[in-house]
Amino acid sequence: MLERSLVFQLISAFIVSFSFAILTNSPSKSLLYCGINGMCGWFVNILLLRFGFTQILSVFFAALAINVLSEIFARSLKNPVPIFLIPGLIPLVPGAGMYNTMTALLKSQFELAIKTGMQTLLIAGSIAVAIMLVTSFNWVFSALNKKVKLK
Hints:
This protein has one domain. Helix content is 82%, strand content 0%. The protein contains 6 helices and no strands. Helix 3 packs antiparallel against helix 4. The termini are far apart.
């Protein structure tokens, strides 16, 4: 049985992604899929954290999962990938880390600011690398698929 806090976190991730999709004027038929995408990504993140992965690695694999789901949803609903990708990634964005970095800087706690800032940048970088990997793989696969069809 799932813990109550996990269910609450998953519902919250769904609502955040769904709401951000509304805010960015996503097509109405894609809103539910945007929420599901964010919820699945958050689930992967929490699951990997519980298995002892670092926060950077768990966010990386969660972003990979979100990107793959975005590609699947985009093809099945005939919409661009960013419609599903951007709202799905919102729960993973390290906003608290950015806030804590700035707070530490304002309080002249430079050592804490550097530590928190580096952690935040590594998490954001892991999201970017995950997006780049899936997008590059998809691009290469599509190019190879076109080459095979031409023969």
